[in-house]
Amino acid sequence: MHPVFLKLGDFTIAMYGVMVAIGFALGLWLAGRRAARERISPEQINNLGVWLIVAGMLGGKLFYIVFFWSDFIGGWREEGIRSLREGFVFYGGFIGAALAGWFYTRTNKLPFLKLADIFAPSVALGHAFGRLGCFFNGCCYGKACDLPWAVKFPPPHVMHNIPVHPTQLYEVAGNLAIFTGLMLYHRHRRFPGQVWWFYMLAYGALRFAVEFFRGDYEHHYLGIFTLGHLIAAALILIALTGHELSCRAGRPSQKQAAT
Q1: Which residues, other chains included, contact 69 with Cβ-Cβ below 8 Å and sequence gap of 6+?
Q2: Is 142 helix (H, G, I), strand (E, B) or coil?
Q3: At what angle do helices 42-67 and 112-137 cross, to 10 degrees?
Q4: Tens digit of pLDDT for each residue in 58-67?
Q5: How many Å apart are CA 128 and CA 146, to the nearest integer?
Q6: pLDDT-based confidence at residue 25 (cuts at 50, 70, 90)
Q7: Rounded to whole angstroms, how far apart are CA atoms 193 and 101?
Q8: Closest to 157 in 3D by CA, of 176, 144, 172, 171
Q9: What gap in Å lies between CA 175 and CA 65, rounded to an integer?
Q10: Residue 102's Cα: distance from chain center in Å?
Q11: Cβ atoms of 128 and 168 closer than 8 Å
């Protein structure tokens, strides 16, 4: 656990923020390169990137406030406005960024699903860096276990000196695998949106599996399922539905096929 990247007097740069910034920068750079091959201006990617960053951060914070209210209030009482630097939920950031991307493409008359395909591998890569930041910060930790790869966080972590699942690293590895797969598949996609729906399906499955090892939830449904499980299941269903609808829309009609 190493939550602070740099501290100069009262000025502190959090390791989590550094990892997220690296992930955003690398993701935008790679998306710009893919966009150029699709004859989309890299400038449009950069402009959209600003929207995604702002909306993602706002969505992640809002999700945290709504669903982890007690933790938010506890942090506010302890650190005041400084507590706003921590406490972001990926699902909220994902939803916020997706809505911002849809609004931006509609406003600028750009193909949403085509751009979603371009950004999908970058989202997985950026998320891998974000989860690495979680590991340094000690959040999103796992349940106690006695496995050889278990990790121990130092005091004042709530699980200090107790071996736990490195769930953050599970997601780092999973997201890197998804990123690699999407990068290889991107040029072989058959219709707009296919890469995006594959990303949502793959991440939903990854998150659903990792949630069984998470140890930072107070409430469970039916004794074993978390809020993360429910949202991951929703992502999987949306991805399957979206893939089928996009496939039908991209399939040539009988009249077109006959000509």
Answers
A1: none
A2: strand
A3: 50
A4: 988 888 888 7
A5: 25
A6: very high
A7: 14
A8: 144
A9: 25
A10: 17
A11: no
Could you please report the per-residue DSSP string of 158-216?
TTTTS-B--HHHHHHHHHHHHHHHHHHHGGG-SSTTHHHHHHHHHHHHHHHHHGGGB--
Percent helix, strand and coil across the chain, each to the nearest 5: 70, 5, 25
* Residue in the block written with tokens 């669903």: 67
222 burial (CB, 10 Å; 0-12 / 13-18 / 19+) is exposed
pLDDT tens for 164-215 read 999 999 999 999 999 999 999 888 888 999 999 999 999 999 999 999 999 9
Two tokens at 46? Answer: 């950069």
| pLDDT tens-digit series, residues 63-80 | 888 877 777 777 777 777
The tokens describing 38, both together, are 């699709």
| The residue type at 40 | I
In angstroms, the CA 116 to CA 2 distance is: 34
Is it true that the peptide bond before 155 is cis, omega within 30 degrees of 0?
no
Could you identify the residue written with the tokens 């006959």? Answer: 258
pLDDT at residue 65, as a whole number = 85
CB 95 within 8 A of CB 107: no
pLDDT digit string (tens) for 97-130?
999 999 999 998 889 999 999 999 999 999 999 9
47 has pLDDT over 60: yes
Write out the two tokens for 119. Answer: 């950004």
